[in-house]
Amino acid sequence: MEVPFVIFVIFGGAGDLTWRKLVPSLFDLHRDGRMPKKFAIIAMDRAQFRDAELHKHFLDGVKRFSRKGKVKSADWKNFARHVTYQQGDFKDPATYSNLAKSCAKLDKDWKIKAGHIFHMATPPVMVGIIPKMLADAGLNRDRVCARLVVEKPLGHDLDSARTLNRTITESFHESQIFRIDHYLGKETVQNILAFRFANPLFEPIWNRRYVDYVTITVAEEVGVEHRGGYYDHAGALRDMVQNHLMQLLCLVAMEPMVSFNADEIRNKKVDVLRAVRPVSHRAVQQCAVRGQYGKGRFDGKKVRGYRQENDVSPHSKTETFAALKLFVDNWRWQCVPFYLRTGKCLPRQVSEVTVHFRGVPHQSFPPDASRRWDLSRLVLSIQPEEGIVLGFQAKYPGPRMLLRPVDMRFNYEESFAVPSPDAYETLLWDVMNNDPTLFMRADQIEAAWQLLMPVLEVWAETSPRNFPNYAAATWGPAAADLLMTRDGRNWPLPISLAAQEKKKTSHGRRLLL
Predict the structure, then answer these.
(1) In the chain, what are the domain boundaries?
(2) Please, are residues 28 and 61 in contact by the beta-carbon 8 Å criterion?
(3) Which of 146, 267, 381, 468 has a CB 3.0–4.6 Å from the CB of 294, allowing a cystine?
(4) What is the distance between the alpha carbons of residues 336 and 318, in angstroms, rounded to a whole number?
């Protein structure tokens, strides 16, 4: 249901997330004409700010991080008049009574009950406090208009996630809660649903009869940067696998939905997590790998190791790399392995899902024809390039029957000539329109934590003896390669790098869709 009037309250309004993501995304929505007819943005924080100071601070963030780049003065002035600052202590009831008065005044001036969105861009400790304070001030009562936006981390383990969900749902109904995973706002992630269920071509072979295995890679070039204090208590498994990679797994493995109803889609995702084969404590060593980056070189420059990063213990046992081998025990995917990996200080920033198809049942071509035989695979590229690549075999030009791997590529930018919106633009627009499709439900959060708890417990009980075990700007520890090579498989080279390899070796041709 589209709400024509919205009051958007940002707790942590003077913080980094608001400056980098929230305000630039809201501003771009405004420039695109997608903000409600009337709206107000109330930034709340403990620091003292005048509105003019806040506007200058936000403008700096918009100039740096806006998707559209250059900012016209008229556009900014038109947007900034909707933005005000309200100082307050998040533990003080007076802060919320003042906020309630501000919201009531806007509703009265607009002569309509507006949507009231409370976005918690705050440290995790405040997530257990703010919802209760909002409820005490009566700001939670309207189940249609009042909405609560929660940023990750959504717990530190299964128990804390359950406690957090219980705390939030004591103040807000589940239908009012929007738990953000920004990965779900990316166009290519959403396109997985469109690709699978809007086309009859691939869904009939999207199963164990035709798929050999699936790989999911989310790699980051950067180290922990300014997040050392947080990251050293989280690690790759908590920071990335529990949310981002599990979301991708669900989208790839889920069953077709009956309708595009939000709960129907989220039910299918939960079904996947519940079907994942539980990892026993004894099996952790065989299906999970962890790593920590050490010193290395990137683009000819020295890169320091994780233990030399700011706010990181020089004896840290925290993993900056994690890889898992999982199985989804249902009729569609029985015995098909899903290999997941993520890490920091890897050679390239890339997020890809690759579906590796089985080989032909009988090889009828002569040996000389297929020396460079590659299995067919489908790559869903999420970043840095948004697109889809289908790899298959084709005859090389000439009188002899020679087969070579080729690619057909679909590129979002080339096909639509329209830049993809930032993930936060999509998600914030959905919150304003009360559409929870792309947001995580409590049972999904808890199911993901429950799946990973044996790995976290074993890793906590057994300290790694070989950290750091991969150099910065390499693809992780040797054990991650072994996770696949002992099954006769390999991690795929990212498609952008794969294209470069083909150019170097003068093999392979590319077909453009």
Answers:
(1) 5-151, 184-512
(2) no
(3) 468
(4) 30
CATH number for 184-512: choose from 3.30.360.10, 3.30.1490.20, 3.20.20.140, 2.130.10.10: 3.30.360.10
Q: Which helix or strand (DSSP H or E) is residue 208 part of?
A: none
CATH number for 5-151: choose from 3.10.20.600, 3.40.50.720, 3.90.1150.10, 1.10.3720.10: 3.40.50.720
Global pTM exceeds 0.85: yes
Q: Distances from the Cα of 73 to the Cαs of 31, 67, 78, 126, in angstroms? A: 12, 16, 9, 36
Among the options 30, 116, 244, 356, which is catalytic?
244
Q: Tell me whether residue 244 is one of the annotated catalytic residues.
A: yes
Instruction: Report the SS3 class of residue 345.
Output: coil
Helix residue ranges per DSSP H, 145-241: 158-169, 187-197, 228-231, 236
> At 266, is the secondary structure helix, strand, or coil?
helix
pLDDT band at 505 (very low <50, low <70, confident <90, very high): very low
> What digits encode the pLDDT tens for the residues 301-341?
899 999 999 999 999 999 999 999 999 999 999 999 999 99
DSSP state of 374: -
Q: 77 in the Ramachandran plot: left (φ > 0), alpha (ψ -120 to 50) or beta?
A: alpha
Mean pLDDT, the chain, rounded, equals 90
What is the C-alpha end-to-end distance of the chain, expressed in Å?
A: 37
Task: List residues bridging with 294 in a β-sheet.
Answer: 471
Pairing of strands 321-327, 288-291: antiparallel
Taking CB atoms within 8 Å and a gap of at least 24, the contacts of 424-427 are 424/21, 424/22, 424/25, 424/182, 424/185, 425/25, 425/28, 425/29, 425/67, 425/185, 426/185, 426/187, 426/190, 427/178, 427/180, 427/182, 427/184, 427/185
Q: Are 257 and 251 in contact (CB under 8 A)?
A: no
